[in-house]
Write a structure and sequence with these properties.
By secondary structure, the chain is mostly helical. It folds into 2 domains: 192 residues, Growth Hormone, Chain: A (Up-down Bundle), CATH 1.20.1250; 198 residues, Growth Hormone, Chain: A (Up-down Bundle). Helices cover 76% and strands 0% of the residues. Helix 1 runs parallel beside helix 7 and helix 7 packs antiparallel against helix 12.
Length: 433
């Protein structure tokens, strides 16, 4: 969209950074988490839910493959605005097809469109952030973008699920309740599309990237890819990126079904709205606090000092789900506190993972290397998650959560393998976008 007003080059970051990172977070959470609740309420088995929704990780796995195109074709601003329109359109199409007889086929197809649009939006938004802000403002607004990404998580994982649950209990069928909810999300994205088309700045640096005419784009991309895989200790790095979250990758797909399933099936029997409150609001706030504290303590003493504490914080609270599956507490407060403790530990422990991704991305082609690291991260989440639903249905929730505890062992092993500079993470974390 061509807007030539020279004032657009000097927009206040407060006018667009919060809304941009809301737009980045909401579709990812809808695709990865809200879809699980949706399909559970529409009657799919845990096996099908885990398999189908795990495939939706794929666009984030392979996004490094087309990230050079976002650099070379048009501006980041163009990609942001167009992808927001596509996300809104795909949300509307999911809402339209939920009542259809073949809703699984149609909704998954549009979730795929949303996933690819969202992954492309991530590439463009993160690049735009670096182009539109001078370095000192990039550091100053890191906390702002992270906070609004988490607010997006609460809005989608909490707000949308609570809204759907409210409609379910006030005269709407499950299908109509979720259709209305996703139409509301589509309308919100249409508003974001219009807002950003007029408000996003037009930085001079935001233009198609120049390339070495003596090399083809494919050659340059393969070179940047090779640099990542030729770095020292690459086997340990790959093992860490793939296995640090091996247990959590399986657990995350089964939390919402466990909370929703009736007690006769081993679940906690919560309503849709209660799941939105417990997992989508209380849990996300705890996750956010864990991440903020994790980043703060690393900045004081470095990643090497904290990484063993963080891997324990990441995995040991998974024992809470063993307790919940056996005790099946009736108290909503106990359930909420239990989920909050587990999510706080996850947020605190995940900080170490983020810092390792930054560490292995330092050097030439930093942006491409970080995109590769995030793709490997998504692969590490996708593959274990795909069989988690089948496994849970074979052995039940109690045994499944015991399996999750065993699945944390690779996470401890890979921490022992990774090499970390004792000073990495101190002070210079402010410079990492």
């Amino acid at each position: 969209m061509n807007i030539s007003n020279s004032n657009l080059t000097a927009r206040s970051p407060w006018r667009w950074i919060p809304s941009l990172y809301l737009a980045e977070g909401i579709p990812y959470v809808i695709v990865m988490t809200v879809s699980v609740v949706l399909y559970k309420r529409l009657g799919l088995s845990n096996t099908d839910i885990a398999l189908y929704t795990s495939w939706l990780y794929l666009p984030w796995v392979i996004k490094p493959l087309w990230s050079p195109l976002v650099d070379m074709l048009r501006t980041k601003r163009f990609w942001i605005v167009v992808m927001q329109l596509l996300v809104g359109a795909s949300l509307a199409c999911v809402a339209l097809t939920i009542p259809a007889s073949n809703f699984i086929r149609y909704t998954l197809a549009f979730f795929w469109v949303m996933a690819f649009s969202s992954a492309t939006h991530d590439i463009a938004a993160d690049g735009f952030y670096m182009l539109a802000l001078p370095e000192h403002q990039q550091a100053a607004f890191v906390g702002v973008r992270t906070t609004f990404y988490r607010i997006a998580t609460i809005a989608a994982k909490g707000g949308l699920v609570i809204l759907a649950g409210y409609l379910e209990t006030h005269g709407f069928t499950v299908t109509s309740a979720w259709s209305v909810t996703l139409f509301a999300a589509a309308a919100f994205f249409l508003a974001l599309f219009i807002y950003h088309a007029f408000v996003l700045p037009c930085p001079v640096a935001d233009r198609p990237a120049a390339r070495d005419v003596s090399q083809s784009p494919l050659t340059q991309f393969l070179h940047s890819l090779a640099i990542f895989f030729k770095q020292k200790d690459v086997k340990a790095i790959l093992a860490f990126l793939l296995l640090y979250r091996f247990a959590e990758a399986q657990l995350v797909k089964m939390v919402a079904p466990f909370l929703l399933d009736p007690r006769i099936k081993g679940g906690l029997g919560l309503t849709t709205s209660e799941v939105g409150i417990v997992y989508g609001t209380v849990g996300v706030v705890a996750l956010m606090l864990g991440g903020l504290i994790g980043g703060y303590v690393i900045s004081k003493k470095g990643l090497k000092f904290w990484i063993w504490i963080m891997v324990c914080a990441m995995h040991l609270p998974d024992l809470i789900f063993v307790y919940l599956s056996y005790a099946l507490p009736q108290s909503f407060l106990i359930i909420s506190l239990s989920v909050a403790v587990e999510q706080f530990g996850y947020g605190f422990g995940f900080t170490a993972y983020t810092m390792v991704m930054i560490m292995v991305s330092e050097g030439e082609y930093r942006t491409v290397r970080y995109a590769i690291a995030t793709g490997i991260m998504a692969l590490g989440m996708m593959i274990p998650a795909m069989f988690s639903g089948w496994l849970q249905e074979q052995i039940g929730y109690q045994n499944f959560f015991f399996w999750i505890i065993l699945s944390t062992i690779p996470g401890f092993i890979v921490v022992a393998l990774i090499r970390i500079d004792p000073e990495f993470g101190m002070k210079k974390t402010e410079r990492c976008g």
